[in-house]
Amino acid sequence: xxxxxxxxxxxxxxxSPHWEFDSSFVLEEGPLLITLNFTGEELQTSDGPWTNxxxxxxxxxxxxxxxxxxLERPDGGGLERWYCxxxxxxxxxxxxxxxxxxDLDVHVPPKGEPEILDEDEFLENSARxxxxxxxxxxxxxxxxxxxxxAKDAQFPFEERSA
Length: 162
Known about the structure:
Elements: E1 5-11, E2 17-29, E3 32-37, E4 42-45, E5 48-51, E6 55-61, E7 66-73, E8 78-87, E9 91-93, E10 96-108, E11 115-117, H1 119-128, H2 133-151
């Protein structure tokens, strides 16, 4: 049912809290779950509360090693960017979802080149938290997949132009 609350929780690889928030259900199609958050909503982070400055369409997959947040300007100004988190596949239990954030991120602007973020954090935490080689490989492959999808303007980046 559209609009019902989905509780989203992410941790770091060692189990420490990262993000936690409620989101509104939009669509579930196979392994894809889409939720929505609005400007002004408060989300909990490991650093304390954070107020969302965007209307955000969240794309979570149970079979992909990333999720994608489509960020819209609240003033009707359109698409700001896509923010992609490299994560474990999303686990779902009823109206609760959970995943592990693996530190790497990809910023995809509406025009221009995508940017890989937090490489240093990924390298530091993968050593400190002992990411297994297969997790590191999945993370690297997820970055490559996101870059290819963005380059080809494939879902969820269909509105993108070079």
